[in-house]
Amino acid sequence: MSEQNPTRRDLMRPAQLVGLALIAAVFAGIVTLVSMGILQDPRPVPEGAMHPHLRAWMVSGIVAGITFIATLVIIALSLLAVDPAKASKPVTRGLLLDPETDADGGDAPDGQDRPAPPRGH
Fold first, then answer.
1. Strand partners for 90
2. Cβ distance 51 to 85 under 8 Å?
3. Each residue's pLDDT tens digit in the chain (121 positions)?
4. How far is CA 23 from CA 14, 49, 50, 62, 105, in A?
């Protein structure tokens, strides 16, 4: 295993982002299929009506397509928030951690402990 820290550019490869969107779309499609009763025996279909399983597959494909496109758009818009100058720097700690705290102990730079953040109800 490599000891080198990955850069942000390494963490944002297009194939990985498209793969994430594909996984989300497949999950949404499967949930739609199951919720529309694809695993159940269909009731008798009246003459001229669409078979329930065919309708479930059609709706599942539409939901999966919408999820795939929406996930790609959301990821692409989120990547616009990353500064290009920081994209080549290695990531050594979590991106959402406070930059003022040390990575090892979490103490303030001046050595004094900070009060705990307020907790939710």
1. 7
2. no
3. 555 777 666 767 788 889 999 999 999 999 999 999 888 887 788 888 888 889 999 999 999 999 999 999 999 888 888 777 776 777 677 767 776 665 455 555 555 566 666 676 5
4. 14, 33, 29, 15, 37
Amino acid symbol at 69:
I
CA distance 53 to 72: 28
Question: What is the residue whose two structure tokens read 């990955």?
Answer: 6
Interacting residues of 118 by C-beta distance below 8 A, sequence separation 6+: none
Q: Is the dihedral of CA 13, 15, 18, 22 positive or negative?
A: negative
- The Cα–Cα gap between 99 and 92 comes to 12
Locate the DSSP E strands across the chain.
none
pLDDT for 110 equals: 57
**Both tokens assigned to 47:** 């003459």
